[in-house]
């Protein structure tokens, strides 16, 4: 297993330099976490995390500072050099509320150190000098079987964010969670998490390839109930799942991360703005959803043209419906707004003032659309 094969040219160069330097001090240094998982998934490696053994903290601090690394988690013995995180192996014990309330101790026992990892697929350790694999928890087999499985119940429960990580991993990789892990995650309280940390994980779900997997576990591990106070009926669950499976391929890439919540809110008839506040979502989410028109019972040409007065249909999230896209292209409004001959100056000349100006402009635009439909669009 060649680690270098999965690295960019720049990361490969940096990795070689660091490996040569560390070899002066130890023969036990491991690539850990998602990087090893991604190697076995045949994905490129983006984040390099290296865990270094057999060096005491004071000496570790000195040799890394001499190398030019910067301490980014001094209490956790974590340093950064270039695009690489370098740390001492540790065990953690929860001491209070919040993601920083941990007592941290150094351990040079690989199995004990790997025990703090969330899932077996993330607990693999690959020696950077001889590429020997350490797999104490069956992670390689779980990757092959596409299974997400908790490493250690006690340490898992100490960081409730890991529930969200399970969901986004499922959505990204198309993996299933084993039933024992699901049962444990259902019992975990999520109230100690900040909105920012929750959204950070959920956005990975929103951008993922297998959204229906993410949605399934969003329900199974009770995130929907605990976060949004909503229980989903079976009929709605199947409708949403079917919608995601059938139409995800039609999502416009520019707006991909916005479809998940849009589809959920549409089928559940829920106010998406309420969810955005609960998640403290970035302003860009609020901006995109604000542009979305309220859906009528039936979508006709008049509604499409009216919608396209403000935004082209490829900016309307309902554009994943192939019939809507096809019709919008025929009307010439998929990538462009619909143009009328209504002029604001003409309205002002007719002595309209204040709010009446916008009302009159709207009236004239709709009148133009009706005439356009009658005279230009073939009737079916």
Short structural description:
This protein has 380 residues and is an alpha+beta fold.
How does this structure look, described?
- The protein has 19 helices and eleven strands.
- The chain has 380 residues and is of the alpha+beta class.
- The protein has three domains: 1-146, Beta Polymerase, domain 2 (2-Layer Sandwich), CATH 3.30.460.10; 160-290, cca-adding enzyme, domain 2, CATH 1.10.3090; 301-375, no CATH class.
- The strands form three sheets. It has a seven-stranded mixed β-sheet. A two-stranded antiparallel sheet has the order 6-7.
- Strand 6 (90-94) and strand 7 form a beta hairpin.
- It starts with 8 loop residues before the first helix and ends in a 5-residue tail after the last helix.
- 27% of the residues are buried.
What labels would you give this structure?
cca-adding enzyme, domain 2; 380 residues; alpha+beta; Beta Polymerase, domain 2; 7-stranded mixed β-sheet; 19 helices
Terminal CA distance reads 63 Å
CATH topology of the largest domain: Beta Polymerase, domain 2
Q: Could you say which overall geometry the principal axes of the C-alpha atoms support? A: elongated
Number of helices: 19
CATH H-level superfamily of the largest domain: Beta Polymerase, domain 2
CATH C-level label of the largest domain: Alpha Beta
Biggest sheet record: 7 strands, mixed
What does the radius of gyration come to? 27 Å
Order of helices and strands: HEHEHEEEEEHEEHEHHEHHHHHHHHHHHH
Binned, the helix content reads 40-55%
Portion in strands: 5-15%
Task: Detail the poorly predicted runs.
Answer: none
């Amino acid at each position: 297993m060649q680690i270098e094969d999965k690295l960019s040219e720049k990361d490969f160069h940096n990795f070689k330099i660091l490996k040569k330097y560390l070899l002066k001090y130890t023969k036990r240094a491991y690539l850990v976490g998602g990087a090893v998982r991604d190697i076995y998934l045949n994905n490129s490696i983006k984040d390099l995390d290296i865990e270094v053994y057999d060096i005491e903290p004071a000496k570790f601090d000195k040799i890394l500072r001499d190398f030019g690394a910067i301490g980014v988690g001094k209490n956790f013995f974590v340093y950064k050099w270039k695009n690489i995180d370098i740390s001492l192996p540790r065990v953690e014990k929860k001491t209070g509320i919040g993601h920083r309330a941990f007592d941290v101790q150094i351990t040079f026992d690989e199995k004990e150190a790997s025990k703090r990892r969330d899932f077996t697929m993330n607990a693999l350790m690959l020696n950077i000098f001889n590429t020997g694999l350490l797999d104490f928890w069956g992670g390689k087999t779980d990757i092959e079987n596409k299974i997400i499985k908790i490493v250690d119940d006690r340490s898992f429960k100490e960081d409730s964010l890991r529930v969200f990580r399970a969901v986004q991993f499922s959505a990204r990789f198309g993996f299933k969670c084993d039933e024992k892990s699901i049962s444990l995650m259902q019992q975990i309280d999520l109230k100690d998490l900040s909105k920012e940390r929750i959204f950070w994980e959920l956005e990975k779900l929103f951008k993922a390839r297998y959204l229906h997997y993410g949605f399934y576990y969003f329900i199974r591990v009770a995130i929907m109930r605990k976060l949004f106070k909503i229980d989903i009926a079976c009929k709605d669950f199947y409708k949403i799942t079917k919608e995601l499976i059938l139409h995800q391929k039609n999502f416009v890439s520019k707006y991909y991360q916005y479809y998940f919540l849009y589809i959920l809110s549409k089928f559940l008839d829920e106010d998406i703005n309420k969810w955005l506040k609960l998640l403290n979502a970035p302003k860009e989410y609020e901006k995109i959803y604000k542009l979305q028109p309220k859906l009528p019972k039936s979508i006709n040409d008049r509604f499409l043209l009216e919608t396209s007065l403000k935004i082209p249909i490829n900016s309307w999230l309902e554009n994943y419906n192939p019939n809507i896209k096809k019709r919008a292209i025929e009307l010439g409004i998929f990538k462009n707004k619909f143009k009328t001959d209504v002029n604001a100056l003409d309205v002002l000349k007719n002595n309209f003032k204040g709010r009446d100006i916008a009302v009159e402009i709207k009236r004239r635009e709709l009148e133009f659309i009706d005439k356009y439909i009658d005279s230009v669009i073939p009737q079916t």
